[in-house]
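I'd like us to work through together how a protein chain folds, taking it slowly. To get us started, please write out a protein record for me. Label the sequence line and the structure token line clearly, so we can match residues to local backbone shapes. Once you have written the record down, we can walk along the chain together.
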Amino acid sequence: MIGTYPLSHKIHKGHALDFVRYANMLQGNYAESSAAAVKNAGSTEPDITSGLKNIAHTWITDKVFGKWDKIHADNAVNSQYEAPYLKGMWSYVMGSAHVAKGHMGP
């Protein structure tokens, strides 16, 4: 065995995908960052609190890359989550999209 985890990329797939998402985000690669986020979120049940961050990572990736129209288009689906963490994260991302698009009132 080499390292502290045997086959860690297989045992800790979600953690590995977090690194892939973040590394691609830092390199400005939206397609790969988004793909890793979506793949990681796809294995998450919205009722299990330990995986909620995986769902929010897809939204944060869109926010970081300024995908404002996509965020607005996804509002009907993403605003349906009941978990307080997801409600808060979606409000943050949606609020950022409103500000970026100039949808702020006086």
